[in-house]
Design brief:
heterodimer, A: alpha+beta, Multidrug efflux transporter AcrB transmembrane fold, Alpha-Beta Plaits, 3 domains, five-stranded antiparallel β-sheet, 18% strand, elongated, B: alpha+beta, flat
Chain lengths: 525, 394
């Protein structure tokens, strides 16, 4: 047989290219393993009632956001059907479990502060009263609005606090940090496109941070060596220091040695959101560093002392956007505001279930035995094939194809499409059986075709074509039969469907044509 | 070894008796299939231990202390040491608590809505520029809401009491007299619920540790709502898969009898696999259902091989071609059976239940497939070919 001719065969070249791509994928992304193999914790959460996919998406994102806010970025959140959610912590232990349960149980604390006084809090809200309305169009502008109601006592307090404060901003915080200081980079402080001076910016930020007797002091990180004495002297009253993830490590260390609890924020969160409000100069609309999320302005009519339980927060989407984008921005803004007012609450109530725990050593053993299982089953299959054909030139390519299909599937599924879990492994092993079957069909067609003798080349082509008709038919049926499972939302076995489908696709488009090419070349001789 | 060409026998059509018998036997065993944890809910503990223990005593204390009826224990000495699997049925109190909790949440929603309405209409009545008609409307709605509120509140409190009654077995007395508003009541019950589940889990573990030393354990709990979802979703998936596969078969063959033969073959195969599950007590679970779906593909593999060989090839007689196809097909089934047997043995040694369920179901199905394809499908196809060629001669 001419091996060089084989290397010029397009089907073989495709196979080699795909192997190269798989190697690159594995090297670049690494293989990801599921909970069963890595060990960890899965917390099942039941929703109080069934929700539609949009709300489900909201819930998943809110949980993710809340959990990552506490520095647990590894957490996976998956929706199961329309009334269950899984929160998964790879490598998680019991201590983290408590933390997550607490995070999920509690809600954020909303505070609306006007001129340094608490005007309204999350506890004042009447349950279920916070509603976002559909964006409305006024000329070229798109208006968004969120309405809410507060209880009677709160309404009286609100009326007193906002009396005579027309056009003052209501600084809306979600989990405002008490007893804290902020150490900000000069570049972050002056990052917005306004002509504000440094001292003016600091004054505005400190004013926004005021709450009754608690102030949030703002320092410039670049001047740290000059001001560290001042900061050190504050540590009797201040406990928390907020700074950028990109902050100088020596500054972080110095603050920690002064007994500050350091909270890291992303560079984006550190940048204050200043804007120019016509003649009134520069105003602050939000600052992620101190969890100041929005700052709507009080309209005149509610600052005249009348006690009212019903309010609306509204605004217009940025006028620079196109109309469609305005719509989307309006919806997003009202969603954001609703989430602030509800304290980041989930749209429906949740019930935490009993967590499933998988110890990491057990997971490793699972993985080890799964690999052994795959190899053992491939070897047993190969042995039987050898008994049947008794020709190494046929058996070796079949074995090579089995192993290639397995490893290509695992590298595609484990790098970009998902994680390798028990279901995926079972699928890979199972689909291998189907793959071998296809090769037996191809081989038997070839052997059968050869017996005919005459017009050999045409016979070979015809046999291959006939074999591939069967192979393709079966492949399409196997894929179709797995598709409902793939989209079922049953995460326990979705991996199974995924790996079967991928292996079948790789098999019929790449490895089996290559196998066919190999066989053709072999019988030509 | 040569298998004789069974299709050359004069009465080869009688071959259909074998799969028919198999189907009948399977139909007897299908109701005996046990339901797995996923589909019926409950708690599964997998424990590795080195100590020996009295299975019956453990079972007794678990049922007594936890207030459940059904506890099954399997105890296997494998290469990884001793693995003990304990499956505990869904605790009735926990399940009832979850159900009542949902009811309670729904009633809280109603009460909140009514309270909101009351303050909204009260506020609106004080509006300066209100018209008489609006005033009447508001007053009517207000009276309405006020009339409904007491009953709803009563329902809410009675549901709260049943939640507490469900959970008190685990957490002791719960006093809700301090929870005067709905928000406090809600968080009291939510905490009680989490607490009860935690206590229940602790209790399971403490009973077990009093019987053996636990080195490592993993715990899986499937709540009633989750298992309900699994049941309905898997039914949906199986039906869709089968219908989609059937549609593809019909599109490919565009001929009635061969399509029916192929689909009947797949159906027979699945029925035999299910019978095997009943016979060998392989539980119906998410994993075994995934394996059943794979069988659709597997079984069609040989069915299509047979159909194309008999109907599209020309050399030899149809009976010879069918026999030829059988040699290839039986080889294919054998190879797959060997592959899954290795996985099956591995699963027995390591107690990885996913592998056990998938491989066992696949083996049953593949064995069934040999009979389904070569005794049913082949007979139908040959009969079909004989009939059409006879028709052509006339």
């Amino acid at each position: 047989m001419k091996y060089k001719a084989l290397l010029r065969e397009p089907r073989i070249i495709v196979l080699l290219a795909v192997i190269a791509i798989a190697c690159i994928l594995v090297i670049n992304f690494g293989l990801h393993f599921g909970l069963e193999f890595e060990g960890g914790i899965r917390i099942p959460i039941s929703l109080e009632k069934s929700v539609n996919p949009l709300v489900m998406n909201d819930i998943i994102n809110t949980i993710k956001l809340r959990v990552t806010k506490y520095g647990m970025s590894q957490v996976n959140v998956k929706g199961i059907g329309n009334s269950e959610v899984y929160v998964e912590l790879p490598h998680g232990d019991a201590r983290q479990l408590d933390e997550i349960e607490n995070i999920l149980k509690q809600q954020g604390k909303f505070e609306g502060i006007v001129d340094g006084k608490v005007a309204v809090t999350g506890a004042d809200m009447m349950p279920g009263s916070i509603q976002e309305s559909q964006p409305t169009t006024q000329g070229n502008d798109v208006k968004w609005a969120v309405s809410f109601a507060i209880n009677q006592d709160a309404a009286r307090r609100f009326a007193i606090v906002v009396y005579g404060k027309a056009n003052y901003p209501v600084y809306m915080f979600l989990d405002r940090y008490e007893d804290s200081i902020v150490v900000i980079k000069r570049s972050d402080l002056l990052s917005t496109n306004t002509s504000i001076s440094e001292s003016e910016a600091v004054r505005l930020l400190e004013k926004a941070g005021m709450k009754e007797n608690d102030s949030i002091k703002v320092f410039i990180e670049d001047d740290f060596s000059l001001i560290n004495q001042t900061i050190a002297s504050l540590n009797s009253t201040k406990k928390i220091a907020i700074l950028s993830q990109a902050a100088d490590p020596s500054v972080v260390k110095a603050l920690q040695s002064m007994n500050y609890q350091v909270i890291n924020k992303t560079p984006d969160e550190m940048k204050p959101n200043f804007y120019v409000a016509g003649d009134e100069g520069v105003k602050l609309n939000g600052w992620g560093a101190i969890n100041l999320l929005s700052a709507p302005v009080l309209s005149t009519d509610i600052t005249q002392g009348r006690v009212n339980q019903f309010y609306e927060v509204n605004g217009f989407a940025p006028s620079a956007l196109s109309f469609d984008k305005k719509q989307a921005a309006a919806i997003q803004e009202s969603k954001k505001l609703k989430s602030i007012l509800t304290g980041g609450a989930l749209p429906v109530r949740i019930m935490l279930g009993t967590p499933t725990t998988i110890p990491a050593p057990l997971g490793e053993e699972f993985l080890k035995y799964s690999a052994i299982g795959a190899l053992a089953s491939a070897s047993a299959v190969s042995f039987i094939i050898f008994l049947r054909y008794k020709k190494l030139s046929i058996v070796l390519p079949i074995i090579a194809t089995i192993l290639l299909e397995m490893s290509l599937t695992l590298s595609v599924v484990g790098t970009v499409l998902g994680t390798i879990d028990l279901g995926v492994m079972a699928g890979v092993i199972g689909a291998t059986g189907a793959g071998v079957n296809d090769q037996i069909i191809i081989t038997d067609e070839m052997l059968g075709g050869r017996k005919e003798g005459e017009k050999e080349e045409r016979q070979i082509k015809a046999s291959i074509a006939r074999a591939f008709f069967i192979v393709l038919t079966v492949a399409s049926i196997s894929i179709v039969a797995m598709i409902p499972l793939l989209f079922s939302g049953l995460v326990e076995i979705m991996g199974y469907a995924l790996s079967v489908i991928i292996e079948v696709i790789i098999g019929v488009t790449i490895t089996r044509p290559a196998f066919g090419a190999f066989m053709e070349k072999m019988f030509e001789k | 070894m040569e298998i004789p060409n069974i299709y050359k026998f004069k009465n080869y059509k009688l071959l259909i008796i074998i799969p028919t018998l198999l189907i009948l036997v399977s139909l007897y065993f299908i109701p005996k299939i046990p339901t797995g944890l996923d589909l019926r809910g409950g708690t599964l503990l997998t424990i590795s231990t080195n100590s020996s223990f009295d299975e019956n005593a453990l079972q007794d204390s678990l049922t007594k202390e936890l207030g459940v009826r059904d506890v099954s224990i399997s105890n296997v000495q494998g290469p990884l040491g001793r693995t003990v699997e304990i499956e505990i049925e869904q605790n009735e109190r926990i399940a009832a608590g979850e159900k009542d909790m949902r009811g309670f949440y729904a009633s809280v929603e109603t009460v909140n809505g009514l309270e909101y309405d009351i303050s909204r209409f009260t506020a609106d009545l004080e509006r300066a520029n209100i018209t008489q008609a609006e005033k009447d409307d508001d007053q009517k709605s207000l009276n309405d809401a006020q009339a409904k509120l007491p009953a709803s509140q009563k329902e809410m409190y009675s549901l709260a009491d049943s939640v507490i009654a469900d959970y008190e077995f685990f957490v002791g007395k719960v006093d809700r007299s301090n929870a005067t508003d709905t928000t406090t009541l809600e968080s009291l019950l939510a905490n009680t619920s989490i607490n009860a589940k935690q206590k229940y889990q602790d209790k399971i573990l403490s009973v077990i540790t009093s019987h053996m030393t636990v080195e490592q354990f993993s715990l899986q709990d499937v709540s009633p709502s989750l298992s309900e979802f699994f049941v309905s979703k898997t039914q949906e998936v199986v039906i869709y898969s089968f219908v989609l596969a059937a549609i593809v078969v019909v599109i490919i063959f565009r001929s009635f009898i061969p399509s029916v033969a192929v689909i009947a073959g797949a159906l027979t195969d699945i029925i035999i696999a299910l019978g095997g599950m009943g016979l060998f007590q392989i539980p119906l679970s998410l994993q075994s259902i995934a394996a059943l779906l794979m069988l659709i593909g597997f079984s069609l593999d040989t069915d299509i091989l047979l159909t194309t060989r008999v109907m599209r090839r020309t050399e030899g007689t149809p009976h010879e071609r069918a026999y030829d196809a059988m040699k290839t097909g039986v080889m294919m089934a054998l190879v797959s059976i060997i592959g899954f047997s290795v996985l099956f043995m591995l699963s027995l040694a390591t107690q990885i239940s996913t592998y056990y369920q998938i491989s066992a179901v696949a083996i049953c199905g593949l064995v069934g497939d040999i009979f389904a394809t070569w005794c049913t499908n082949a007979v139908i196809i040959l009969w079909h070919v004989e009939r059409t060629t006879k028709g052509a001669k006339k």
